[in-house]
Amino acid sequence: MSTMIKYEEKDLKVVGTRPLRPDGVDKVTGRARFGADYSLPGQLIGKVLRSPHAHARIKSIDTSKAEALPGVKAVVTRDDFAEMPVEFALSGELTVNFHDVTRNMMAREKVYYDGHPVAAVAATSESIARKALGLIEVEYEVLPHVIDVLEAMKPDAPLLHEEQYTEGVTPRPDKPSNLAKRMVFSRGDVEAGFRQADVIIEREFNTKPVHQGYIEPQACLASYTEDGQADLWTASQGHFVIRSQCAKVLQMEVSKLRVMPTELGGGFGGKNNIYNEPLAIALSRKSHRPVKMVMTREEVFRATGPTSGANVRIKMGCTRDGRITAAHAELNFQAGAFPGSSVAMAAMCTFTRYDLEHARVVANDVTVNRPKVAAYRAPGAPIAVFGVESVIDEMAKKLGIDPIEFRLRNAAREGTQTYYGPKFGPIGYVQTLEQARAHPHYSAPLGPNQGRGVATGFWFNIGSETSSTINVNEDGTVTLMIGTVDVAGGSRAAMAMMVAEELGIDVDKVRPIIGDTSSMGFNFITAGSRGTFASGMACVAATRQAIDKLRQRVAQIREVPVEAVLWKDGHAVPAGGEAGQFAPMSLADVAKVAGRTGGTIAGHAEINAQGAGPGFGTHIVDVEVDKQTGLIKILRYTVVQDVGKAIHPAYVEGQLQGGAVQGIGWALNEEYVYGDDGVLQNPGFLDYRVPVASDVPFIDTVIVEVPNPNHPYGVRGCGEVPIIAPMAAIANAVENAIGIRLCEQPMSPPRVLKAIDDAAGAKA
Amino acid sequence: MARHHVTATVNGDAVEFLCETHQTLLEVLRDELRLTGTKEGCGTGDCGACTVTLDGRMVCSCLVLGVEAEGKAIQTIEGMAVGRDLHPLQQKFLEHAALQCGICTPGILVAARSLLERNPDPTASEVRYWLAGNLCRCTGYHKIVEAVLDAARELRGN
C-alpha cells in the first residue's frame, strides 16, 4: 500500500520562511562530526591494496608476509567473503546486483579496473598498514582492456564478463559481449513522424565520466564484537541501505548490525553504495578490534563514483512552424566494470520535456574497464539532454524561431502523455519557460565574442519507503526523529518547519535528529530528490497522528467528545457549534500532564510515499569565448525552476545554485583522463578541476511554485533538476558567441581551440 | 622510530605533542590533539578544507609537517568563536545559508578571516580569487561570497 497526503492550500506561518539551520552552529564551529571524525578506543587503521591494472586475472594472493609484520592484526581478501548469487536490490536511483557488489568491494576472479580492491589490512597505525600492503604478493595475468564505450561495443573488443549475454535483444546473442543490456522506450511511429518533418537534424555527442566530487572522502568506523553484533559509523546517503547491503555480503542478520549516520560531507549520488564498510566490519570481525577506514582522495577518484561517460546520437524532425514531429535517440553509456549505469533513467528523461507523438530512445548499458559508475545528481539525464537541447537549439535557429518560443510550442503540460509511461499531472514547465523569457537576463545586451544560451531539464523525483517519529517532550517541545540522511541541502530544517507548521508552534521548539538504524523503521536512501518530499510526508503523517492523540487526551481531560476538540495554532480548542465548550489547552499544557493522563505522546509514520511531482527547469547563460586561449568564461547565469513549494527558500536557492555550478564544471573542465595502459592519470583535485569561486558568477534564481497535488505542502523535490541543463545551455551560448557547435564535453580550452582551428580550416 | 617533541600554541592554549617526522600538521591536529574541526579533503593542498593559520599566515595544514609547528601559534576553526559569541563570519554564514554539507566550511571560514584581516573591504571578485583555493561542491559559492561581503561590512562597522 502506498501513501499520499493531498495538498491543501492554507495560510502558512513557518513554511516559506528562512530560519537558521539546526545543524548550522555545529558546522561553523568545527563541532559537526563527519565520517572521519569518529574514533573508538583501541581502534586499528584499515587500508586497501588496489589493482594497478585495468584488467587482469588474479592467479594468486599471498598475504603471509603482511600478516607477519608486527602491528598487523588482520588481513582480508576474496577468501573472507562469500560468493553471492545474482540478486538485485534498489540502491538510490540505480539497481545493484549482489553478485557484482561483492566483486566490486573485493576482487574475486579478476580485477576489472585500476583501483579495484584486492586485499585489505588492519594495523595499529596507518604507516604499518601501508607497509603491510607492500608486503602482499599478488600474481596477475594481465588481460587486454577497453576504456571507451564505442570500442567496448565492437565485436572483437576485450571482454570483461565471459558469461554476459546482452539482455533485451531477441534472439539471445550467441556470443557474450560487453553490451550488458539494451532497452527501448518508444511511442508512436517514429519513421512516419520523420516523413512529416520539414527540417531534420541528426548529431552525435560525446561526454566524459565525471566524479561527484564531494569534498569528504568516504570514511567509516566498524566495531564487531565476540557475540556477533556490530556497530558501524559511516558517511552515507542512506544508512538503512548500507546496513542491508553489508548484512547481505557479510551474511549477518540485519538486527545484529547497527548503523549510525555521521554528518555527510557531500554525496550527490556517490555515497549510496558500500565500499569500505564491509571490509572494515570483516577486519574488525577478524581482529576483534574497532577498525577505521578513510579513503584518500586518490582512492576516491580511482574506485568510487563516477558517472558514465557516453556516446549519444540524436535525430529530431520538425515542421516549418516549429512543431516537433519525431525524435529518436541512441544512448551508449559506460557502466564501468559491472552492468547497471543510469542509462535507463537517462532514456526516460531524454525528450520528456516535450509533447511528442512519435519518439523512440534506445539505451545501451556497456561494461568497460573503469570503476563501476554510481549515481550522480539526476543520474544520466544531463548527458542525454545535452544532445537533445543542442539539436533543439539548432532547429530553432534554422527556422528563425526564438529558442524559448520553440520550446513553448512543443512543451509538455498537464495531460501530456510521456513516451516512457505516465501522463503528466500538474507541472510547471511552461511557467519556467515563460518566466525565463520575461527575465531581464534574457533581453540584456551582449558584447563581442559573447553569446547567450538556453536549455531545459526534467527529473522525475521519487518517494519510497520512509519512517519518522515525533516525541512530544514533557515541556511541550518536540523531538523529531528522521530516518533520511540530510544530504546537505537542509532537509532537517525543512522537516522541522513542516512539523512546526502542523503543530502550530515555533520551529525552534522542534529539534530534528537523524536517527540510527535501530531507532525506527526502514528508510530508503536520500536520492531522487526525495528527502523533503517523502520524509516530509512521513514527518507530517507522524505529526498528524500525534495531534490525534493530543485531541483524544484533551477530550479525556476536559470530558468532551473527541470531535469537540480542534487542534489550532498550537492549542486544543473547542471545535465550535454544539460540540461543547472547554478551556483551551496548549501543547505545553497537555505535555505537562501527559504522563499521568495516559503516558507520553508520540506520533509515528511508516509509509511508502508515492506521488512525487516531476520537476522542470529552464536555464539562461551568457558566455564569452576567448578565441586566443579557448577559455569559456561564464558571465551571467539564471536558473528558473518549478520546485512545487519551497519550504525553506534559501536552501532551495542553494540547491539551484550548487547544481548549476556542478553542471558548469561538467561542461567546462571535469573529465577522467586514462592512459593507453588503462590507468587513471588525474586522480586528484589538481588535475581533475572542479569549479572554484573565481570560475563562476553569482547564480540568479527564480523559484516557480506549482504545487505537487500529492504532498501536504506541495513539495516536488528540487536537488537534481538544476544539474541537467548547464551543459546544453553553455554549448548553445558558445554557438551563439562564435558560431561553432561543440558536441564534445568538457568544452575545455584545448577542445575549444581545436574546434576554432577546425572551423577556420574548413572555411579556408 | 623516535618521535619528535613539539611545543606550540593552538588557539592561544599551550600544547605539547609527540609526532613522527612524516606526520603532517593536519594529522597532528586531528589525531594527536583531537581537534577534528580541521578537515582533510585531499591531502595534497588542492581543496583547502584543512586551512589553518600558522603565526598568522594561512596554510594548508596537510602541506605542513607537525614538527614545523615548533614554537608557532596555530589558529583553527575551534578558536574562531569567542565564548558565546560567534565570529561575524560564522554568524553571516548561518544567516546567508552559506553552508550546506559543511565539510569545507571550517577551511573557508579560516581563509575568509585571513582575507578580512588583510583587506577589510574586498570586492566580490577579490573574495572569489582569495577563496579560489577552497573547494565547495555544494553551494556554487554564491551565498559564501555574499556572506563574506556582509561580514566585512559588519566588521567595518557599517
What topology does this entry show?
The complex is a heterodimer of chains A (764) and B (158).
Chain A: H1 24-29, E1 44-50, E2 56-62, H2 64-68, E3 72-76, E4 88-91, E5 94-97, H3 98-105, E6 110-111, E7 117-123, H4 126-135, E8 137-142, H5 149-152, E9 179-187, H6 190-195, E10 199-207, E11 219-224, E12 230-234, H7 239-250, E13 257-261, H8 277-287, E14 291-294, H9 297-303, E15 310-318, E16 324-336, H10 343-349, E17 359-367, H11 381-399, H12 403-410, H13 429-438, H14 440-443, E18 450-459, E19 464-472, E20 478-482, H15 491-503, E21 510-514, H16 531-558, E22 565-568, E23 571-574, E24 585-586, H17 587-594, E25 601-609, E26 615-625, E27 632-642, H18 649-668, E28 699-704, H19 726-738, H20 749-763
Chain B: E1 4-10, E2 13-19, H1 25-32, E3 51-54, E4 57-60, E5 73-75, H2 88-95, H3 105-118, H4 124-130, H5 142-156
Describe the structure.
With 764 residues, chain A is of the alpha+beta class. Helix content of chain A is 28%, strand content 24%. Among the domains of chain A are: 174 residues, Aldehyde oxidase/xanthine dehydrogenase, molybdopterin binding domain (Aldehyde Oxidoreductase, domain 4); 147 residues, Aldehyde Oxidoreductase, domain 4 (2-Layer Sandwich), CATH 3.30.365.10. In chain A, helix 18 links the parallel strand 27 and strand 28. In chain A, helix 7 crosses helix 8 and helix 12 packs antiparallel against helix 13. The model of chain A has no long low-confidence stretch (mean pLDDT 97). Chain B has a five-stranded mixed β-sheet with strand order 2-1-5-3-4, with helices on both faces. The mean pLDDT of chain B is 97. The interface between A and B is large, with 58 and 58 residues.
Give the structural class of chain B.
alpha+beta
Can you tell me the CATH superfamily of the domain at 429-452 and 614-763 in chain A? Aldehyde oxidase/xanthine dehydrogenase, molybdopterin binding domain
Largest interface: A-B, 58 and 58 residues
What is the CATH topology classification name of the largest domain in chain B?
A: Ubiquitin-like (UB roll)
| Assigned CATH class of the largest domain in chain B | Alpha Beta
Strand order of the largest sheet of chain A: 3-7-1-14-11-12-13
Helix percentage of chain A: 25-40%
Number of strands of chain B: 5
Which CATH first-tier class of the domain at 429-452 and 614-763 in chain A would you pick? Alpha Beta
The residue ranges of chain A in which pLDDT falls below 50 over 5 or more consecutive positions are none
Q: What is the N-to-C succession of helices and strands of chain B?
A: EEHEEEHHHH
In total, the number of domains of chain B comes to 2
- Name the CATH architecture of the domain at 429-452 and 614-763 in chain A: 2-Layer Sandwich
How confident is the prediction overall: mean pLDDT of chain B? 97
Question: Helix tally of chain A?
Answer: 20
Q: Major beta sheet of chain B, specifics?
A: 5 strands, mixed
Strand order of the largest sheet of chain B: 2-1-5-3-4
CATH homologous superfamily classification of the largest domain in chain B: Beta-grasp domain
Shape of chain A: globular
Helix content of chain B: 25-40%
- Rg of chain B over CA atoms, rounded to whole Å, is 16 Å
